[in-house]
């Protein structure tokens, strides 16, 4: 579909006058083309004279009209966006004031509907902004394609990125909306944990979320959980900046232990919050436990002054000094440490130091992101976090002094970050963390979130593992499975060293590292994110090449930029297609403005699936049903499905072979049967048994093929459904029993007919030649069929 028609199909009727005039701009580009072909464009020499009168052309060129209208449309979108945002802020302020005083449930329900409307309007505004934003990109691209002698896209896109409606952060609306929902629900706060040593036992599941779906997911979650702002001074809108410095040794021992999921594998990191230099940090240890044994992974942490981190890793900061500092910090708050807290702090402090010292750990890679947390304050029963603007950075510069050489435990912020020292993850990462007591189930709205299609479960995804595998490809012995996904390939290639460059970056990459981040989220000055973004932008915003030969050379250079860990083509597609997003049933939200129901097939089981019982049972109340998000599938699962199919096929072929042999045997004995006389059953006993067994073999073949294809489809789509068939085996077992009973009855009837014929004739006639074969072959088939079950 042409983008002009796409805009027309997505226009909100009441906002139709505020969209980009895509058709008008396109017509002006055609007029510019015509002027260039006819020579109507005014010629402007590079020199002028003060005494020579120039030709006075009062007619504006189409090129000038194009830029005027383009700038007018940009300003129109900006004013309309600001107007709607201010209206939403005023409405939310008024609703929050009413919610604080309101006690009547009916009026609370009315406020809830109004809050829902504002949330839907905000999502509609985001779609409006994205349609216009992409429209400007498209029309500028068309301009440069039709007018290659006057390119403007590179300049104007940089100008577009600086517009308030592009750079603006309107997440304060979601915070205000979250507060409104919290007041209407009557949320109560838990008790804050300020222990020096803390431990967390909970189950965590991680998902990828497309950037364009982030606001939709936030809106759904905040209707049930409030945005949790631990310290409002370090928050930007609804999110806070989090830095985590992960430690490892030269052999990447911790990386490989976490990747292999060895029991007891640990990850050590130093974490601090906010964009300011760290003052007090958390030294955290994550320990992997085997979930199939009923164990839960544990995260433990203790606080440490940032200026003591290096001394701690060198063994100069002793446990006694650390306890003294902790007691002094507690005293300043008017509290004291209990003996239990001292013991927990001492044990964790000692164990972490032993791990750092024995494994020779050092700062390796940093993860940096903006985190939005949804949680009832200090109640960790259900906690959802959404990490955006995720990047991983080498903690030790490639061309500069390491942290150890400079006596630091984190990278010097003044050093530039080159392209090969940073990787930007293309998706947001959502974590669902549950700390449920025995007998508790997850809330129904959590299940609805998982079933919406906006989330893609990535089993055991780790920022530390992804960053290490991407930034240290020469040092890792194994890589996580998700690196073969097509959606993360471009981001990994952007950090790959060029064969021509080698491991060292270009000198010019560092010279521009202090620039601004065009088109990205705003960050603090001097932070690694800002420096890295500028370096990445410098790599993207190279001057346009106009000659075909130069373009071919540039394409060749791009082809040579291959990450050592990636193959020629991606082999995974974890992110589902947009058409598979069904949206939220209760809230009425849907993907791309479509209906919230399913599409094309709607996920309803077919006739044979219902007959064979291949339909999962409905989820019980409380949302404890099966998840429909993709799950991790081991390769052995495919082979197990094939082995099951071949086992059924083997039995079907056995029955078919016996039936075919009986029919062939019967064809050769027809003449003998007629000469010997006898009853009809005796003469056609072989054919009857074959006709009983042959359809049974065909039915087994059809059943095996159908179930194999059904299972293979669910495995390929990574659906978490029942793979067991609860009806088919019982039905086939019953059919085999019926066939064996029928064969037994026919044989008995034939036997009695032989006895009757013997009594009537006075002599014992010889049985039909096929009788003995029928009994022998039929008995073997029956024994073999019964053995399959």
Written overview of the protein:
The chain is α+β, with helices and mostly antiparallel strands and 789 residues long. Among the domains are: 1-41 and 59-189; 635-667 and 682-751, no CATH class. 49% of the residues lie in helices and 11% in strands. It has 26 helices and twelve strands. Strand 3 and strand 4 (239-248) form a beta hairpin. It is extended, with a radius of gyration of 36 Å. The protein starts with a helix and ends with a helix.
The average pLDDT is 77
How far apart the termini lie comes to 56 Å
Work out the helix count. Answer: 26
Helix content: 40-55%
Strand content: 5-15%
Q: Which keywords apply here?
A:
vacuole; 11% strand; SPX domain-containing protein; 789 residues; alpha+beta; VTC_Complex_Subunit; twelve-stranded antiparallel sheet; DUF202; membrane; extended
Topology:
Blueprint: H1 3-10, H2 22-38, H3 62-101, H4 105-146, H5 153-161, H6 164-167, H7 172-185, E1 197-201, E2 203-209, H8 214-222, E3 235-236, E4 239-248, H9 253-260, E5 266-273, E6 280-287, E7 298-305, H10 309-314, H11 319-332, H12 339-359, E8 362-374, E9 382-394, H13 403-406, E10 422-424, E11 428-434, H14 444-451, E12 455-457, H15 463-471, H16 486-494, H17 507-511, H18 528-540, H19 548-560, H20 607-611, H21 635-668, H22 670-676, H23 680-683, H24 685-716, H25 728-761, H26 769-787
Antiparallel strand pairs: 1-7, 2-11, 2-12, 3-4, 4-5, 4-8, 5-6, 6-7, 8-9, 9-10, 9-11
Helix pairs in contact: 2-3, 2-4, 3-4, 3-7, 4-5, 4-7, 21-24, 21-26, 24-25, 25-26
Pfam families: DUF202, SPX, VTC
Transmembrane segments: 645-668, 688-709, 730-749, 769-788
Protein name: SPX domain-containing protein
